Amino acid sequence: MQLENIPNLKNLNSNNFFLLAGPCAIEGEEMALRIAEKVVTITSKLEIPYVFKGSFKKANRSRIDSFTGIGNEKALKILRKVGETFEIPTVTDIHENEDAALAAEYVDILQIPAFLVRQTDLVVAAAKTGKTVNLKKGQFMSPEAMQHAVKKVKDSGNENAMITDRGTMFGYHDMIVDFRGIPTMKQYGTTVLDVTHSLQQPNQSSGVTGGRPDMIETIARAGVVTGVDGLFMETHFDPANAKSDGANMLHLDHLEKLLSNLVAIRQTVNQL
């Protein structure tokens, strides 16, 4: 796919990686605008193409009492406001076929969750909206298998698909990133590394997913060196009290230093 096909994506001539970042879930308008404003300021300074990320609802939950959202239309309107306020593209994940057309009215990129990337009807529904489709690699899938997910998008008449690696299951309670998968998946299209979800520790007995945020920079550095086109990470100004995935999120205060380091690495890689 061509990044130029994503509306309002800036800094495309910087030769930097692009960034999909924001909170795991939309918890309210104030928090979404606050996070977006901070990330826009940082990415503008560092000339990083930026897409705001936020889930309008959370369907993959460990427990029935886990936070699922503030209401579909309310959250989607907030995503649209973020996009219009800062003139940036937005991305959200969908879980059911009917979500595709609904979310496509508000955001620029539709994301297929890793657990659902083999669901043909869902992938096709997203593709037929004409929006860019971000396909999360299943935790149970090989990098090579993702070519079939990409083909479903293209066979539906949509050339705008990208693949995001979010780690592979390593036992019952941990994830691991096999960086051999990055060059493999680059054969099939634009490739992104989901840094924060790759550090999840799922299936905890408490029913609350754990994580290793202390390893975020390690994984991100390795991704940039390996040649990913983009990075995905969830960030929040108060991860400890975030309503979803707080255990593996990056604190917003640490984002600028991290991205500055990663841009420096990217510049070095570009010279090789």
From TrEMBL:
EC no. given is 2.5.1.55
What is the annotated localization of this protein? Answer: Cytoplasm
Which BP terms does GO give this entry?
Answer: lipopolysaccharide biosynthetic process
Q: Which UniProt keywords apply?
A: Cytoplasm, Transferase
Q: What class of enzyme is it?
A: transferase
Q: Which biological pathway?
A: Bacterial outer membrane biogenesis; lipopolysaccharide biosynthesis; Carbohydrate biosynthesis; 3-deoxy-D-manno-octulosonate biosynthesis; 3-deoxy-D-manno-octulosonate from D-ribulose 5-phosphate: step 2/3
Has keyword Kinase?
A: no
For this record, the Gene Ontology CC terms, alphabetical, are:
cytoplasm
Q: What GO annotations for molecular function exist for this entry?
A: 3-deoxy-8-phosphooctulonate synthase activity
Q: Does the keyword Thylakoid apply?
A: no
Reactions catalysed: D-arabinose 5-phosphate + phosphoenolpyruvate + H2O = 3-deoxy-alpha-D-manno-2-octulosonate-8-phosphate + phosphate
DAHP synthetase I/KDSA domain boundaries = 14-265
Instruction: Say which family it is in.
Output: Belongs to the KdsA family.
According to UniProt, the name of this protein is: 3-deoxy-8-phosphooctulonate synthase
Species source reads Aquimarina atlantica
Q: What is the lineage of its organism?
A: Bacteria, Pseudomonadati, Bacteroidota, Flavobacteriia, Flavobacteriales
